[in-house]
Design brief:
The chain has 6 helices and 5 strands, in the order E-E-H-E-H-H-H-E-E-H-H. By secondary structure, it is of the alpha+beta class. The strands form 2 sheets. It has a 3-stranded antiparallel β-sheet with strand order 2-1-3, with helices on one face. It has a two-stranded antiparallel ribbon with strand order 4-5. Helix 4 packs antiparallel against helix 6 and helix 5 crosses helix 6. It is globular and about 35 Å long. The relative contact order is 0.14. About 4% of the residues have low confidence.
């Protein structure tokens, strides 16, 4: 089973949209983010097919504009255009898929590709300041 989840703050502002197959593990992965403490409610939709869940996630991010998503937003586009070679290389996608090295590292560390990429880009942005 796959889940499309949305996290909201106390004022019902959409903070984050994501897809996972283990809600408890995914929520614990988000616990270190700057926005996790703001979450006061969530909504969850179940899917049997991960591709359908991911397609709905992409639509939700583009149309609902959650405050903290990066992938599928203009923020991600700007990161990909960065002149900083570390950031550009981390964000490079080949034929719509992550660079093989990034994908392999994500799998080794037990993260989804998109979460691993966000973590790497966040670290690279911090280092480039």
């Amino acid at each position: 089973m796959h889940y499309l989840y949305r996290y909201y703050d106390k004022d019902k502002n959409l903070l984050y949209v994501g897809v996972c197959n283990n809600l408890e593990r995914r929520f614990s992965q988000h616990s270190g983010t700057e926005w996790a403490a703001l979450v006061s409610s969530s909504s969850i939709k179940k899917f049997k097919d991960r591709k359908i869940a991911m397609a709905e996630e992409k639509i939700a991010i583009k149309t609902e504009k959650p405050l903290y998503n990066i992938v599928h937003t203009n923020k991600f586009s700007e990161i990909r255009k960065s002149k900083d070679p570390k950031i550009f290389l981390l964000a490079t996608r080949v034929n719509g898929t992550l660079n093989k090295k990034v994908s392999d590292a994500a799998q080794r560390e037990g993260f989804s590709n998109s979460l691993w990429l966000r973590k790497l880009v966040t670290l690279a942005l911090r280092e480039s300041k």
